[in-house]
Each structure stands twice: as structure tokens, then as C-alpha cells.
Amino acid sequence: MLNLLRSERGFSVPGGMLAAAGVGALLTGSYLCSQGLIRVSVHEKRAGGEHIRLVVPGAIIPLALAFVPAKEIGRHMPAEARQHLPVVEAALGELQRLPDCTLVQVDGPGEHVRIRVQDHQMVVDVDDHEDEVHLTLPLSSLRSVMAKVGRAAEFAPSENESDGAGSGTWSHAGHHRGGHHDEVHGVTWEEDDAAGSEGSAAQTF
Amino acid sequence: MKRLMAVAGILVMAAGVALAAPASKSTSKSSSDKWLHVRVEDGTGEDAERVHVNVPLSLAEAVIPAINVENFRNGKVHVDMDGGANHLHDVDFRKILTALRDTKDGNFVTVEGSKDNVQVAKQGGYLVAKVREGKAGGTRVDAKIPFQVVEALLSGNNNELNIAAAVRALGEHGDGVLVTVDDEKSKVRIWVDSKNESE
Q1: Dihedrals phi, psi of A55, to nearest 5 degrees
Q2: CA A66, CA A62: separation in Å to the nearest integer?
Q3: A55 in Cβ contact with A38 (< 8 Å)
């Protein structure tokens, strides 16, 4: 094989470019496959109802988000959304570790709902009298979104600024960064080591 | 030079193959492999509605401390004991629990009414409660909670229920059925085991 590669005919310029393009395509394809595909399928069961199908490579999400300024997202982020970010981040972190499983299954007369984790993707299937919806979301893509939203949260207005309520304190158990006070936004970030606090609580019993 | 290009090409191909394998698959399994299962069956026959929920306790352990809403913060539920209507502040639950833990197995409360029977007992490290409503076909409630879970639940301050600690204790405990509720139309079963699917 090496003899073949060494031959002058095997390495002409167009041939080399073609090979490079092939390798590039292979790498791109491999990366897209590794990131999974976002699939959305909505089928309205009424006569003349819409049938929407959407398949997008999950790798596009972080790529697209790179072009959206975190500051801009943060500016429009409701205080409530920011409050629940740690919960979603913690849940996503654990969901990625799960083996294939069904988390929720509801079967009723003419109604079926199934939420499961399959191949590190969140799969939601809903089938009722009116619609049939199938949704597949790669968890890695969701994490990319959450990472961006997490960064954007630093630019979000504090609760006091947004609705005049609340203390502006966010206990962020999901993150492992040191506690600090954001002077600009008046938000206190606290690192809560849940395991440590529970352990100490158990000792005091 | 050409040999170098060939080697570089092979390395690039290898990198492509490596990228094709999902990186997340290499992650290790979570520390607690226990699952909390809830199964609800409401109604009978074709109109029956069945709900199955399977939650890994590791997920609950990770999520619960992150919840910070109203009375539920840092994995603990703050119980308002100063309300005018209730007198919970007069009851020292920890002392009661300690007393229960240190006593031998037996029935603590037995109520035999004309319609309902209630029994609360300690059996082999479990707090057991049985409620029977009515006669045949009435609602039957059976709860069997490990004492360590109850202890963990009350391990916070006086006016707190430590949900996160209780979930952790549940994960450290063995498999078992926690609660069953049966009546004519519906059945509820809550249990913990190591399977990721309900039976």
C-alpha cells in the first residue's frame, strides 16, 4: 500500500484535493452523526390537518448559538427562567448518564404519552385524539443550549429590576463555581455543595 | 514528504472514526443505580388510564438541591409551624422518632372503628402504616418506610423536612415497596428497585 502511495501517479494535485475533500466530508459526517439529529414530527389528525416534519443535525445548535450574543439572550430572559436554570442543568447532566429507559408513560383511552431516553437522546411521543407528535432531542444539543443560556443569565436583569420582587439571590447548586457578588447586576451567586450540606445536616440529627 | 502525508491522512481518518462514536457513551454510570417507580392505574377495562413514572434516584438527588421555590429550598421543605390554625410547633417530631427508633418492634397505634381501621407499627427497621376504609372493596393503604429515610427526612432544622437527604437514604436502602393504595377503581404502587423499567 505504501508503494502505491509513494507512486507519483497516486498523488496528483486534483487527486489530493479530492482525497482531502473526501476526508473532510467523512469528518463532517462523523461529527454530525455523533451529535445526533433533532427530529420534530407533528401530525394533525383532523381532515386537512398539517403534517410537519423537521430533521436538523444537532450540531447546528451550538453553531447557530455561537452567532447569538449571550448578552442579548440575557436581556430578554425572564427572572423565572433564570431561577429554574440550575434545575434544568442538573437534570440534563444526570439524564446524559442514563441508560435507555422510559421515564414517563401514560396510556389512556385514545391517549398515549411516552417520554424516554434512547441513545442519549430525549424522545417524546404524544398520540391523542387530535395530534400525533414525535420529538427527538439529542441531550448534548440541549446541554449546548443550556450552557449558552447559563452564560446569558449573567447578563439578565435581577429579579428586583424585572418585577420588583424577590431578593435577587440565586443559590446555584448545579454549578461548581466559587461564590461571588455581581456588582453590576446586584446578584449574589452562591455555591451550594448539596452533598456537604446534607452530610452536615445528617450529623446534627 | 509523501509518506508523512499518508501518515497524517491515516491519523485524520482515525480521528473521524473516534468522533463518530458518541463521546457521552464513555461516561460512567451514576453513583446510585436505584430507581423510584410510581405506577397508577385508574379505572378498569378499556377506559382505564395507566401512568408509569420511573425516576432514577440519582436524577432526583441532583435536581432536588437545585430547586429554589417558595418553601422548597436547597432540598429542604420549610414547614410553617407558626400559623394560627396549626399547633405543629408543640410537637417535637424528633423526640418521637428517636423514641420509636429505640423501642422494640410492635404496634404503636391501632384504631378499630366501625368503618375504618388504622394501624401504625414498627417492624424490622420499617415504619409501617396500614389503613383500611370500609369493609370489603374499600380503600386499602399500606405504607412501609425505612426508618433511615424517616430519620433523614427529619434531619434538618426543626421546621424543615430534608427531602434531599431522604432521597439519598432511599437510594442507600435496599429494594422494596414503599406505598400501595388499592380501591375498587384505582391502584397506586410506589417502589424502589434497581431496574430502569417498571414491571
Answers
A1: -130, 115
A2: 6
A3: yes
Rounded CA separation B187/B46 (Å): 16
For B124: left if phi > 0, alpha if psi spans -120 to 50, otherwise beta; the answer is left
CB-CB contact of B141 with B57 (8 Å): no
Report the gap between the CA of B116 and the closest CA in chain A (Å).
32
The residue among B30, B27, B29 whose CA lies nearest residue B62 is: B30
- For residue B197, the chain A residues in CB contact (below 8 A) are 101-102
Closest CA to A32 of B22, B27, B24, B25: B22
- On whether the CB atoms of residues A77 and A152 are closer than 8 A, the answer is yes
Tell me the β-bridge partners of B187: B41, B182
User: What does the alpha-carbon distance between residue B51 and residue B179 come to, in Å, rounded to a whole number?
Assistant: 16
Complex-level ipTM beyond the 0.90 threshold: no
Which residues of A are less than 8 Å from B6 in CB distance?
A: 2, 5
How close does chain B come to A35, measured CA to CA in Å? 7
pLDDT tens-digit series, residues B99-117: 877 888 888 888 888 888 9
Phi-psi domain of B70 (left: phi exceeds 0; alpha: psi -120 through 50; beta: other): left
- Distance (Å) from the C-alpha of residue A54 to the closest C-alpha of chain B? 22
Q: Which three cell numbers stand for residue B44?
A: 378498569
Rounded to the nearest 5°, which phi and psi values hold at B189?
-140, 130
Chain A / chain B CB contacts < 8 angstroms: 148
| The pLDDT of residue B160 | 86
pLDDT band for A14, please (50, 70, 90 cuts): confident
Strand ordering across the sheet containing B160-162: B68-69, B72-73, B76-78, B160-162
